[in-house]
Design goal:
The protein has one helix and five strands, in the order E-E-E-H-E-E. Helix 1 links the parallel strand 3 and strand 4. The chain has about 80 residues and is an alpha+beta fold.
Length: about 80
């Protein structure tokens, strides 16, 4: 996804050599691997708020966005929280 300057992960079982691992049923990624977190505009407020609290504790440096638009809309807008 070089056009968007972002990464997407495809996980396999067993894991790809050198890829992220799963520990206690959770994907193990280093905090510095995250630069931003995007929420869809339809997320429920209480879920978003709970996730924001968790993000603030574990990866406070990551920017947070709510995304509006996309398919079937023509333009996509990401608003920083």
């Amino acid at each position: 996804w070089s056009d968007e300057k972002e990464y997407r992960m495809v996980l396999t079982d067993p894991p790809v050599e050198g890829g992220p691992t799963i520990l206690k049923n959770r994907l193990h990624l280093l905090p510095q691997m995250f630069t931003g977190v995007y929420f869809g505009f339809r997320i429920e407020r209480n879920q978003r708020d709970a996730l924001l609290r968790s993000i603030e504790k574990s990866i406070p440096h990551a920017k947070r966005y709510v995304v509006f638009g996309g398919v079937p809309f023509r333009e996509v807008v990401a608003v920083e929280l």
